[in-house]
Amino acid sequence: MPAGTERRDVVVVGGGHNALTAAAYLAQAGSSVLLLERDDHLGGATVSAEAFPGTGARLSRYSYLVSLLPQRIIDDLGLSITLRRRRFASYTPRPGSDVGLLVDNHDAGATRRSFEAIGAGGDHAGFTDLYDRTTRLAQAVWPSVTAPLPRRSELRRALGDDATWDAFVERPLGEVIERSVRDDLVRGVVLTDGLISTFARAHQADLQQNVCFLYHVIGGGTGAWDVPVGGMGQVSGALEQAARAAGATLVTGAEVTGVDGDGVVTYVEGGEQRQVRGRTCCGAALPVTSRGCAAPSRRPPRAHRSRSTCCCRACRGCARPASPPRPRSAAPSTCTSRTPSSSRRTPAPRRASSPSRCPPRSTATPSPTRASCRRGCASRARTR
Fold first, then answer.
1. What are the extents of the domains in the chain?
2. What is the pLDDT of residue 4?
3. Under the phi-then-psi rule, with left for phi > 0, alpha for psi from -120 to 50, and beta for the rest, what region is 123?
4. I need a labelling partner for 46 at 20 to 30 A (CA). Which of 121, 207, 235, 300 fits?
5. Using CB atoms within 10 A of its CB, is residue 9 exposed (0-12), middle (13-18) or buried (19+)?
6. Of 312, 131, 96, whose CA–CA distance to 216 is shortest?
7. Is the pLDDT of residue 334 over 90?
8. Residue 344's pLDDT is what?
9. Is residue 53 helix, strand or coil?
10. CB 188 within 8 A of CB 92
11. pLDDT of residue 362
12. Which CATH fold topology does 6-80+229-383 show?
């Protein structure tokens, strides 16, 4: 490492909402934080744009709804954002007809009449019961999002309903959907939340559809999805302000090209190659970017070779918020190098029983975002 290499307590690779949240919390805790973002702006997919020039109206450009952003994070970081609750969950037209299924969160009678209009009136009770069960599941799981990761058995006991736990956590999602409703259109509406970004099947053996579904139904303990006033850019903008106010250094136009096993991060800014050494390196970048910056070094990265601290959230010894329980058939987590090559944008919930290979971390200041486990342990203020 060159003698003039800058040193920081934490180097965060990436500038999306996960990275900004981590930077803000770590800086508030007194760490010196450097965040490096390749683009010329921060926020990642949580940005707004003036869709209609001259109107002054800014709308979400990519992600557009907020659900997995705990009120605790808003309060801890002093985020100035306004969220509006959606009245309508969805509208799905019946192919070949002029009717469709409208799910109205504020008017149960309107939803029931909509079921009847598409010829699926008999499914209304099963549909309602299914989501009553997911609400109970959400109430049990949601508090763990900003708490040390509980054991699987602890979450099951907190729910106190083995049938619901088995239906949504242990068995393929398609089974409970097929038992609850019969109409294909209604089944498709329910299954949608298990398929977004996963391309999974309803009865897929690895239960990725269940993982995705749980993320969509636990938000706030209710599963509700909110619209940010001013678009998603208001969320990332508030996170950026919080990080800067806490003392974090946020650099755009900085492309990370390598991270070695001793925590030395190499990046290019303004055509000039620079290096910084972090005691902790947090990867919060896209997989394609991460693979690109996994440059070979004289000593290949190895799990926790250096004095750097693990930022993954799959380890029982680390203080971090829990994810929805990993279905039993899924592979256990294995903590690896902290380089961005081992991070993923979309987190997969981990099993509480996963073996820990990370050093213990104090529970004094839990951070709602962590990153850099091989199968994507980054928590996020989830956007949809």
1. 6-80+229-383, 124-224
2. 65
3. alpha
4. 207
5. middle
6. 131
7. no
8. 34
9. coil
10. yes
11. 32
12. FAD/NAD(P)-binding domain (3.50.50)
